[in-house]
Amino acid sequence: MTDTARTPEACDLLIEAGYVVPIEPHAVVLEDHAVAVRNGEIIAVLPRSQARERFNAAQVVSRPEAALMPGLVNAHTHNPMTLLRGVADDLPLMTWLQQHIWPVEAAVIGPEFVADGTTLAIAEMLRGGTTCANENYFFGDVQAAVYKKHGFRALVGAVIIDFPTAWAKSDDEYFARAGELHDQWRNDPLIGTAFAPHAPYTVNDANFERVRMLSDQLDMQVHLHTHETAQEISDSITLHGQRPLARLDRLGLVNDRLIAVHMTQLTEAEIHLCAERGVSVVHCPESNLKLASGFCPACALQRAGVNLAIGTDGCASNNDLDMFSENRTAAILAKAVANDATALDAASTLRASTLGGARALGFGERIGSIEVGKQADLVCVDLSALETQPLHNVLSQLVYATGRQQVSDVWIAGQPKLVQRELVGMDLPGIIANARQWRERIRHVRA
Ligand SMILES: [Zn+2]
After folding, report:
1. pLDDT tens digits, residue range 186-201?
2. Could you confirm whether the keyword Cell division appears in this record (predicted)?
3. Where in the chain do CATH 2.30.40.10 domains reside?
4. 49 alpha carbon to ligand 1 midpoint, in Å?
């Protein structure tokens, strides 16, 4: 070996961890490994003993008691609604939505509400190890700017809905806004845009056809709530003579761009149709449980080969953005629903909440696993805590025993966002003070 061959390679960041959970390959834990990062990208995953010889790192972060895993992807959320956390609870979906959420929302919605809610959500997500969100809310332009400002990765949905809102007054205006959003962010490394038709019961055939045509032309994902409740299915049969998925299929939307959220009501044939067409399903177990919407057959979907992702849904219906809690609920609920304790094991659950989410969003080539060439969206979880001792099995602890407060460090595209639990570049007391003033404003509009 020559001297030049031994010259260390430069890198920006070397993270050494007791355990690296790469997700790909599946169900693997690499003990005493390091991840090297240059220009925001992962350039090596190697044993810790070799890392410092091979790399001359501008910064070394050593976390011998931690698991380093890909950032969690929250595959369905309405982050501005974080400001409506706890406004109304313990009600069925339609009563909750029509009598409580929509009237309050109508009174406060606007760019300021959306920016402040998104900021609060970003801080909460970072402290819980989430590095990417699939967003579905009005004023996508405002959200995208806030995500970008904080260096947070997101797929921002342009909402399409059949009635006027503060965001758009007519069908044409909804589509014009979606086009503007897409054009503005089309080549951004952090922000992507999707169509977000609200649900089959709030979007007519003509608008769905328009979404289908434009999503094909512009290569945009379609982020849609569907098959959320039994009522939605029976209403669709009454109104359209078809179950929602059959109707969407007639309209050409059941394809690999579809991000189908909830899916609690599915026949065998529908599960196979989703697998065949490459549909991604986002399971939001806590939202479904809290609203008594039904049970997504997560295990059957996964075993049929459907790409499964996990989401919290908005804070108004969950009431948090805690993906560790969501993972645990998903894994446990899947076993009860399938009547099979082997359903959705720990490794599969972690995969759904990282790589599964990334693939659903169309980001599968960029994020979701710790692999060379992917973006360094990484999370350190401190497993030395009492609550995760003794450490018999890292994957088991991460799904069944870890709380989000054990997240110590977070990077997005190699940039530090949380260091030893301190947010970087975000004013935590200021964010909390701002949330408090929103409580007063919302209390006032409800009085
Ligand atoms: Zn939702």
Report:
1. 999 999 999 999 999 9
2. no
3. 3-70+376-413
4. 45
Q: From ligand 1's centre to the CA of 225, what distance in Å? A: 6
Going from the Cα of 79 to the center of ligand 1, the distance in angstroms, rounded, reads 10
Instruction: Please tell me the distance between residue 30's alpha carbon and the centre of ligand 1 in angstroms.
Output: 36
Quick one: 3-70+376-413 is in which CATH superfamily? Answer: Urease, subunit C, domain 1 (2.30.40.10)
**Residues 273/276/282/284 CA torsion (nearest 10 deg):** 40
Interval 9-46: pLDDT, tens: 999 999 999 999 999 999 999 999 999 999 999 999 99
Q: How far is the CA of 316 from the centre of ligand 1 (A)?
A: 10
Fold of 72-360: TIM Barrel (3.20.20)
